[in-house]
Design brief:
This protein is 46% helix and 13% strand. The chain folds into two domains: 124 residues, Rossmann fold (3-Layer(aba) Sandwich); 186 residues, Dehydroquinate synthase-like - alpha domain (Dehydroquinate synthase-like, alpha domain, Up-down Bundle). By secondary structure, it is of the alpha/beta class. Helix 4 runs parallel beside helix 7. It binds nicotinamide-adenine-dinucleotide and zinc ion.
């Protein structure tokens, strides 16, 4: 649990008839590490059995490490998730993916382990900063870009209201959860080559950007996804999959919610290509980029044999 909610949630859990073991964790990307998993394992193993349920209370990083721990401790125990950031409420709490990071890249050690229950309470969102809300909005927008153009129109019109008052969020969160569930429903374990892969829109780029910046000027996940979406739209325009107007609309919108859009500001280096080469979705020498066909018009799979320096450099060398 992120210590932020200690004073509200802990007393009510303690009143239950269950035995509670509380493990405070610092909720940020550094918690998704082997070291943090080992810390958690040392705290938990002396006390748990297969009847134990882990309860994760925090953002996507806490959900990912607790869910991952639940998936492997004692060969798997149940877990419950109370997502406390917008990003975790609209994305990471839905779909059963859990992961920690490796020195080779993001989310490379993980599993599918669905929580038994997700409790999404928008009261948590009151303590988020505008930037954290905008980061969540990026993932919500990603779902609209994949399959709901009307939702994108609404976000485009109402983003100022949404960013300044979290009371506008519940209906969007609800709509978003339905969208994401629809996409994952026929492909729970992402092994059917179906539309679930579209959810990775912008993420091949985003994970590489997050990995190359992790030591200095590190990007929040939502910021990296914003840059990743811009790169995916640029590549889609270059490949004639998407028109320039849709690409520009998406970039303007991301800019207006305060998210970065100039990935060209990142230093281009061969390291980006290295991170593509260890992308989870690669097949042998081939790597697949998810390209948007427009706004809310589904995606196109663009597979290349090892992304060439030329392909990526041509994106970076544009304004
Ligand atoms: N498993 C999945 O399907 C999936 C999907 C999307 C993203 N993710 C992962 O989620 C992570 C990002 O999650 P995130 O954006 O929630 O960030 P985060 O979990 O790193 O949290 C960001 C910050 O917000 C704080 N915080 C949490 N709840 C708060 C609240 N209610 N009020 C104030 N502060 C609060 C945290 O302590 C932390 O400092 C990334 O590691 C990403 O890879 C996973
Ligand atoms: Zn994401």
């Amino acid at each position: 649990m992120t210590p932020l909610f200690e004073s509200t949630i802990l007393p009510s859990l303690e009143k239950s008839n269950y035995e509670i073991l509380y493990v405070p964790l610092k909720g940020n990307e550094s918690i998704k590490s082997i070291e943090a998993f080992t810390f958690l394992e040392n705290k938990l193993l002396p006390f748990i059995d297969r009847q134990t349920t882990l309860i994760a209370i925090g953002g996507g990083a806490i959900g990912d490490v607790v869910g991952f721990s639940a998936s492997i401790l004692l060969r798997g125990i149940p877990w419950i998730y109370l997502p406390t950031t917008l990003l975790s409420q609209v994305d990471s709490s839905i779909g059963g993916k859990t992961a920690i990071n490796s020195s080779f890249g993001k989310n490379l050690i993980g599993s599918f382990h669905f929580p038994s229950l997700v409790v999404t309470d928008t009261a948590f969102l009151k303590t988020l900063t505008k930037k954290q809300i905008a980061c969540g909005l990026v993932e919500l927008t990603k779902h609209a870009l994949i399959q709901d153009g009307d939702l994108f129109d609404e976000l485009e019109q109402n983003h100022a209201k949404i960013l300044s008052d979290t009371d506008f969020l519940p209906s969007y969160i609800f709509k978003n959860i339905q969208l994401k569930i629809n996409i994952i429903n026929d492909d729970w374990f992402e092994d059917k080559n179906g539309t679930r892969q579209y959810l990775n829109l912008g993420h091949t780029f985003a994970h590489a950007f997050e990995s190359i910046t992790k030591n200095e000027n590190s990007l929040l996940h939502g910021e990296a996804v914003s840059l990743g979406l811009c790169a995916a739209y640029d590549l889609a325009v270059e490949q004639d999959v998407c028109c320039e107007q849709d690409r520009d609309r998406v970039k303007n919108y991301l800019n207006s919610i305060g998210m970065p859009i100039y990935y060209q500001n990142l230093t281009f280096s061969d390291k980006i290509l290295e991170y593509f080469k260890i992308d989870k979705k690669k097949k042998g020498e081939k790597i697949t980029f998810i390209l948007p066909k427009g706004i809310g018009k589904s995606c196109h799979l663009f597979t290349v044999r090892q992304p060439s320096t030329q392909l990526i450099f041509s994106l970076f060398s544009k304004n």
